[in-house]
Amino acid sequence: MIAAHAVGRPLEAVFLDRDGTINVPAAAGDYVRSPDELVLLPGAAAAIRRLNRAGLRTVLVTNQRWLSMPGADRAAFVATQDRLVELLAAEGARLDAAYHCPHAHRSCLCRKPAPGMLWRAADELAIDLTRSVIVGDAVSDVQAGRAAGTGTILLGAGARSPLADAVRPDLPSAVDALIPHRAAQRRQHLEEPHACGRQERF
Ligand SMILES: [Mg+2]
Ligand SMILES: [Zn+2]
């Protein structure tokens, strides 16, 4: 189903959209502009924790066009990102890197659907894009992934896009599709050193 899996090569990184994927999105046309407005979606932190435990790198890629508008409060954006990291950490989840596009429409190569943030992450973090997937709730997330050569999962109840490799209702079920159950179980078991006993001398 996911491109990397189809050819039997293990997945290496998962690119994650922010608003509408990890946290509750702002009203249409608006943005999450302050830490108080950042509320995690149910199960999102646990889903990212599962990616972490499966050894996959997690990279946030988010469009924040409001930062290009006059008077935008950059400090509030930084505080909002910090809040996200904090809320995830409270549930044992982490992002390995976070990229954002602060630009206006059609003024850069990083605002999704353009692939610039994925290109930069691949370069800076030595990520193989053909062994990566992007998960997001907008067709522009899928388009960015296609342009960069990653697999793509579109989120949303009833969402559809001919470009997406898969459509799932939410991040937790996307992660179900990405992590083979046995591999996740194995990883989890090995993280609990006392789950089974090994006799030292016999
Ligand atoms: Mg989104
Ligand atoms: Zn940009």
TrEMBL record:
Keywords: Carbohydrate metabolism, Cytoplasm, Hydrolase, Metal-binding. Pfam families: Hydrolase_like (PF13242). GO terms for molecular function: hydrolase activity. This is D,D-heptose 1,7-bisphosphate phosphatase. InterPro entries: HAD-like_sf (IPR036412), HAD-SF_hydro_IIIA (IPR006549), HAD_sf (IPR023214), Heptose_bisP_phosphatase (IPR004446), Histidinol-phos (IPR006543). It comes from the Bacteria. The keyword Lipoprotein does not apply.
